[in-house]
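Lab notebook, bench 4. The sequencing result for the construct came back, and we need a structural model before the next group meeting so we can plan mutations. Quick request posted to the team channel:

Model the 3D structure of this chain.
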Amino acid sequence: MNALTQELVELLSLEKLEENIYRGISRNLVGKRVFGGQVLGQALRAASYTADRPAHSMHAYFLFGGDVNAPIIYKVDRLRDGRSFVSRQVSAIQHGRTIFTAMVSFANPEEALEFQPPHPEYPAPEAFKPEQELKQGLLHFIPDNVRASFMRERLIEIRPINPANPFQPQPETPYYAHYVRTHDPIAANVDDIGLHQAIVAFYSDFIFMTTSLRPHGLSYLTPNLQCASLDHAIYFHRPLRADEWMLYDMEATVTNSSRGLNFGRMWQNGQLVCSTVQEGLIRLREIENQ
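Done. Here's the predicted structure in token form:
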């Protein structure tokens, strides 16, 4: 694995402190606060260490912003160990307070009724430029004080289908899609479904919330705009691999009361493998202070 993929695996591989308690490292991935996807992935990984089957759903709430300079403790409560379903509650704790909480349910795949909507009609990922290459084309828009952080290469590879310039946003349709995968295949010695699901949870949060900004002609870089993830749900429908191309198709359905609601679908090899839902805070400070 290359350095970026190795760093991602290490980020989502937690240290066991004692039974049901784990410690995760923090990384500065998006700014002053811990990236929500990091906490999602680490919390799901912590829960997976206590279960004997893959996750099928996760429902999470972000309570406080995380400190990128401190580790995070994950406490897992074993609520149920049933024949069909295993239920866990995870609390992420930092500086003595709970910053995040999630319910995670696990279940083995079953042969049963099957249905899915039609697969979106997009060209193959090879038809699109990598996000890092698109960033190079924006260099003359980037202020010096944010250039280093904006140009930092992500731990995953993203190929946007309908990219926009975040420094000069224009009103657009409330849809966004990209292809995503790890930079390298996952090494055989750490290759398990729990890690793949944690990586998918990690990258399910990239750009998701900002879909609801598109119809307003705003971006996460808009001055005086306060953005934060409030909650996040992810449903795992079928087995998947985070190191193979995944099409992530997103749609914003409503913005109101300084919140935006977004829905997402992840497709792999023609199958709908994940669905996501997230509500985010999108507060314009000028409006708030009137």
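The two ends are 52 Å apart (CA to CA).
Will bring this to the meeting.
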